[in-house]
Amino acid sequence: MERILVVGVTGAGKSTLARAVSARLDVPYHEMDALYFVGPDWAVNEKLGEAVSRVLAEPRWIIDSIGYPEVRDLLWEQADTVLWLDYGRRVVMPRVLRRSLRRTVTRERVFGGNQETWAGWLSREHPVWWAWSQHAGRRSEIARRTSDPRFAPLHTVRFPHPDDTAAWLASL
């Protein structure tokens, strides 16, 4: 495990697991959303491909994402391990609701100095709505990729429940 993708639906706990694995294995952690959102008003990094390529040029890394479409194949081609948080909506939705509520109430700054706002809850791109609407499609996409012959060399560890993830992490 030198080049690791932590994948799953929004709110599954990808960043949390990636940070924990990074600390245990001393592998540099890179937050995909921080590479993608680079400025106020959720400005998108126009040079995402270059930023991701710089990360992937490192010998060891861990990234918490399936990858944005423009870099998705590149990530999967360069990874050696996929840690898949394959959790159902019953697990994910309370997590993403709590996280977004906390971020909104505390006005916590996230990627590029942005903040989740009460008005943002009305947007289809808000994390809560995104997690709900994209859940089935994201799970299907990950399942397709983990069985795709192009990515056959990848070692995939699928965690269907948070207890499985916790047990695996404790054994690391």
Give the structure's gist in a few sentences:
This protein is 48% helix and 17% strand.
Tally of discrete structural domains: 1
Q: Which fold does the CATH topology refer to? A: Rossmann fold
Anisotropy-based shape: globular
Q: SSE string, helix = H, strand = E?
A: EHEHEEHEHEHEEHEH
For the largest sheet, list the strands in their spatial order. Answer: 2-5-1-6-9
Q: Supply the helix-strand structural class.
A: alpha/beta
Q: Helicity, in percent?
A: 40-55%
What's the Cα radius of gyration?
Answer: 16 Å
Individual helix count: 7
The parts where pLDDT drops under 50 for at least 5 residues are: none
CATH architecture descriptor text: 3-Layer(aba) Sandwich
Protein name: Adenylate kinase
Keywords: Kinase, Transferase
InterPro entries: ATPase_AAA_core, Cytidylate_Kinase-2, P-loop_NTPase
Pfam families: AAA
What order do the helices and strands come in, and which of them pair?
Blueprint: E1 3-8, H1 14-25, E2 29-30, H2 32-36, E3 37-39, E4 43-44, H3 48-56, E5 61-63, H4 72-78, E6 81-85, H5 89-106, E7 109-110, E8 114-115, H6 127-147, E9 155-159, H7 162-171
Parallel strand pairs: 1-5, 1-6, 2-5, 6-9
Antiparallel strand pairs: 3-4, 7-8
